[in-house]
Amino acid sequence: MSLPSLRLKANADRRLRAGHLWVYSNEIDVAATPLHGFKAGDQAVLEAAGGKPLGVVAMSPNNLICARLLSRDAKLALDKSLLVHRLNVALSLRERLFDKPFYRLVYGDSDLLPGLVVDRFGDILVVQIASATMETHKDDIIAALTQVLKPSGILFKNDSAARDAEGLGRYVETVFGLVPEWVALEENGVKFEAPVIQGQKTGWFYDHRMNRARLAPYAKGKRVLDLYSYIGGWGVQAAAFGASEVFCVDASAFALDGVERNAALNGFSEKMTCIEGDVFEALKELKASEERFDVIVADPPAFIKRKKDLKNGEGAYRRLNEQAMRLLNKDGILVSASCSMHLPEDDLQNILLTSARHLDRNIQLLERGGQGPDHPVHPAIPETRYIKSITCRLLPNS
Q: Which keywords does the record carry (predicted)?
């Protein structure tokens, strides 16, 4: 395959040579290689200002990040063969980490497959494509996945807003075999079923696996409140870890049906109480009812989706954690999590301290967690690190 060239300005290759994978539109020598000569989904050979090849990139010419490095070998363009190789490399890590086939198999840039996410549920694969280049090669993706993993079903869950910037339509489609509405998985020894077709994202959030495992010593024999529970990832595991009671709060009746389904699957239905409604309103009602909990998990959706949302988002995290703290017993545990890429962990820690002091309580930070190793962080791309989890203890101010 003969690919066109994409030429960088002088010295614009330094960041890429240092390990980064992204090319910004203002780094392109548009006199030599105008961006309007490319369309979204094209591949090109990236060249330094002097013409030396730096590798192959996937093009998004209308975006600020106009290209992403696929390979540092100018001869290795994206095709089925490269996909098979990258999948085998990704699989070797996950099989080293986990004894059962339930994990994120591909995590975009971190697995050198920008714009591609694959979650594995045994022999069912759920795929998210967020780039035009990957969309162009979706048949190769299917062929590579079937060759490497021999699945019984592959679902393309291509309904995210990330596709809009690439000019891609949204759709959900079974592209290979059969995919049921609910698929089985196991996490930390607890059985679940995830709604891969109708659920959020791929149907499950593997990223908090390690943080949920850390809940075990805190939950035993305790009364637990799980905020933004979705289908019970935290709450059902708390019950499995020996919690005496678990309350799950979510605005979605469909999600809470999933909580009940997964609680029954593990024999914990009698421990679970589901509350449907806005979490902030539910917190006020629980406070008015003088309910108290030993452990509270606050794992909301991203309150800060863009940098311009930072101020309002920080305020939302502050309100959530402060209201949660008001419901904690004197020696209570709060697990505060964030999936907002734009909220640094130190800022979340400061929010927790400020909230505790506003309530005149002492706070101890006990554990910190990030995303699991099946969501590896690319050290040159801080955007690949998004999960924060802080376990803290709230005590009276005396």
A: Cytoplasm, Methyltransferase, rRNA processing, S-adenosyl-L-methionine, Transferase
pLDDT in tens, 321-365: 999 999 999 999 999 999 999 999 999 999 999 999 999 999 999
For 218-249, the pLDDT digits (tens) are 999 999 999 999 999 999 999 999 999 999 99
- 193 plus 259 within the same structural domain: yes
In angstroms, rounded to a whole number, what is the distance separating the alpha carbons of residues 141 and 129? 10
User: Which pTM value belongs to this model?
Assistant: 0.96
Both tokens of 260, joined, read 């009940």
Q: Name residue 8's beta-bridge partners.
A: 28
221 and 327 fall within a common domain: yes
| Residues marked as catalytic | 339
Domain count, the chain: 3
Distances (CA, A) of 28 to 4, 5, 9, 132, 380: 14, 11, 6, 20, 20
Amino acid residing at 55: G
Structural domain for 191, as ranges: 183-395
Distances (CA, A) of 326 to 222, 275, 286, 289: 17, 18, 10, 12
Residue 31 CA to residue 178 CA, distance in Å, equals 50
Q: How far apart are CA 72 and CA 380, in angstroms?
A: 15
